[in-house]
């Protein structure tokens, strides 16, 4: 007998309460899903949510697409082929999340569809766990720093797919929607920075931690991340981040600040 397909539909304002309750079943896996919903709202033009439902109306899974990235949460494997189709249709260029959620879907993608896959460590630091770091003159960014920060991110190859104006607009959006950015200046330049890539629902993900090559190994990334983490903790926000499991420098930086591993995270870049 053929197993009935699940019903998958785009979610709207009337679904927010039920969606939040569903996502809270695994709050840390769904940090981006919950934080983006809280920070931007379900009607934001760059934010799409899809729900998958069984015949009795029970939740079976959820997919979020924000800008060009997607994330998923599911309990019923039958959602995966349908989620794969949505990711393809919406031209998502990245799929991220805890490995137990993301990896089974990646196995369904055709050969050549994944351009790169990063195995990352998912970590958190809470109140009383953050360790001190040497002061490097790190400070909080303001709207007056938009040009400095756009210069920094546009120079970095990891973030080089956007032009300078788009970097500036993204940075301005972070600050305008309650996000936090920290930076270190040297020689008239922003040489290192860290920022929240999502914040809301009592959680934040730190991302965009970069340092210009000529200024590395000076403790700037640690200082920026430390100040940002402290700001979040003081606001009662869980401070999370992920970093490549193959990067010993990142591991030393974040574990040295008191971050503890809470899971494995997968970042897959797709040929949309």
Tell me about this structure.
Helices cover 31% and strands 33% of the residues. By secondary structure, it is α+β, with helices and mostly antiparallel strands. 39% of the residues are buried. The chain has two domains: 103 residues, Aminopeptidase; 138 residues, Gcn5-related N-acetyltransferase (GNAT) (Aminopeptidase, 3-Layer(aba) Sandwich). It has a twelve-stranded mixed beta sheet with strand order 1-2-3-4-5-12-6-11-10-9-8-7, with helices on both faces. It is built from eight helices and twelve strands. It is globular, with a radius of gyration of 19 Å. Strand 4, helix 3 and strand 5 form a beta-alpha-beta unit. The longest helix is centred in the C-terminal third of the chain and has 15 residues.
List the helices and strands and how they pair.
Blueprint: E1 7-10, H1 16-23, H2 31-40, E2 47-53, E3 59-66, E4 69-74, H3 79-89, E5 94-98, H4 99-106, E6 114-125, E7 139-140, H5 146-155, H6 164-176, E8 181-186, E9 189-200, E10 203-211, H7 220-234, E11 238-244, H8 248-256, E12 260-270
